[in-house]
Amino acid sequence: MLNRLVAVAPMLDWTDRHDRYFLRLISPSVLLYSEMVTTGAILYGDRDRFLRFHPAEYPVALQLGGSDPHALAECAKIAEAYGYAEINLNVGCPSDRVQSGQFGACLMATPALVADCVASMRSAVKIPVTVKSRIGIDDLDSYEHLTNFIQVVAKAGCDTFIVHARKAWLTGLSPKENRDIPPLRYDIVHRLKADFPHLTIIINGGLKTIADIEQQLQVVNGVMIGREAYQNPYLLAEIEQRFFNSAYRKPTRYTIVEQMIPYITDELDSGRAYLSNITRHLFGLFQGECGAKQWRRYLSEHAPKRPADAHVVRQALIAVEKIRTTLQEAGC
């Protein structure tokens, strides 16, 4: 059974395979999710590009975007063969592009269709099938509508729901605004858990600290961290130690970078990536530390140049060390 106590959210353009490899170096135990991948990309695109992942990333869950039960079932089978540990259906993304494809948050208006999608995928694979949703959309934001959605989809065999504790406005707000403007309603998700004690309820939205996580775990089964895990990835080391393994010895940020070097070299030598594809995910590693600005600046200026290699990352570390030494000598 997957440990869903703490997970890193699926984030488009962020939680790609490079980022997941990096995050796994920091925390061996958190559950990692892919970016959302559409059924069309898998069935008609470069399948390997969208689905391959390094064995070191495991366990990884794949988030699928789609609303055709048969296409989703086929993609679920393909993903299971690739080694994914879970299939998650996106019922939370509010973007116009996603809505035009009739999937994402707009599916909250059609719980029977979501149930059909879940049932179809569950019949096709042995790995868990889960749903990530909002607490409501537009004017369909009553608690009664939400509980009806949960009941209908649960009857189709979904026993795990990841709930972003904000509603989504499908008209009038951008995807970015939908991450901040609708107020967080943790109480709604807490009420869900109380009313559906037999279901696994994971809460998502605005969680940033160990204290936040501890507070939520008193009520729900698990938490999902989003932007904070990307912008301050070293938080995952604290999470690993606090929630998974008290004997875990947090690696230093320098050690994590050194462990990334062989991966970076292999990816570049094989032609699978450019350096900047990987280093953009490392910007937040020194968040809140002396030298964080120098680290970000050096990587952003030098990694996009061709033919940049892992030497750039080592030089960025030197830039961090220089500023730290200067500050220490100044008595800071």
From TrEMBL:
Q: In this protein, which residues make up the domain named DUS-like FMN-binding?
A: 8-310
| Pfam families according to UniProt | Dus
Offer an example of a GO molecular function term for this protein. tRNA-dihydrouridine20 synthase activity
Identify which cofactors the protein needs according to its UniProt entry: FMN
UniProt family annotation: Belongs to the dus family. Belongs to the Dus family. DusA subfamily.
PANTHER family, sorted: FMN-LINKED OXIDOREDUCTASES SUPERFAMILY PROTEIN
The protein's role, per its UniProt record: Catalyzes the synthesis of 5,6-dihydrouridine (D), a modified base found in the D-loop of most tRNAs, via the reduction of the C5-C6 double bond in target uridines. Specifically modifies U20 and U20a in tRNAs.
Q: What is this protein called?
A: tRNA-dihydrouridine(20/20a) synthase
This protein's species is Beggiatoa leptomitoformis
